[in-house]
Amino acid sequence: VDLLQESPQAGLTCDELGIPSIVAQHFRENDATGVEGWIEMLEAASIQPSSICYSMVIDAHAENQDSKRAERWNEAFRRAGAAKLDGSSYGTIIGACAMQGDAQGAQQWFDTLEKAGVDPDADIYKSMIKAFAQAGDPVGAAKWFSDMEQKGLPVTEELFE
């Protein structure tokens, strides 16, 4: 931790300190709190977390089906201007919404993805279908299925599992 406090004066970056490797270890252990803790320590030491670190904290919370915390970190990532979010980051949050049956949240994130100019892939459409199905909205799920087909995205058997 002393190294973190001295790093800004030395001009060391998050990546140069090897922080993504530490954060990745917490991620592999499904320790969302540990991932979050390291990012908070970096921020407290005035060191800009890398986009990899932000992606891991978003993914960790999404894996734990905590879409609200994933969304909060996504917003922090955006505010920090670390990097532009990619389809994978949006897909992770939409997937977390889907696991919770939060069709409205998934829809909001899909709209945000489109406004950002990110082209949704088949996995994002599958998450949208799942979100609406889990929410008990078969008409909404069918609409997303139709949209997926119209875009020419692959429909695989796993969609029906």
Description of the structure:
By secondary structure, the protein is mostly helical. Helices cover 69% and strands 0% of the residues. The chain is built from nine helices and no strands. The protein starts with a helix and ends in an 11-residue tail after the last helix. The mean pLDDT is 81.
A few lines on this structure:
This protein is mainly alpha-helical. Helix content is 69%, strand content 0%.
Q: What is the quaternary state of this protein?
A: single chain
- Number of helical elements: 9
Overall mean pLDDT stands at 81
Order of helices and strands: HHHHHHHHH
Largest sheet at a glance?
none
Global geometry:
elongated
Structural class: mainly alpha
| Count of extended strands | 0
Beta-strand proportion: under 5%
Cα-to-Cα separation, first versus last residue: 46 Å
**Helical amount among residues, as a percent range?**
55-70%
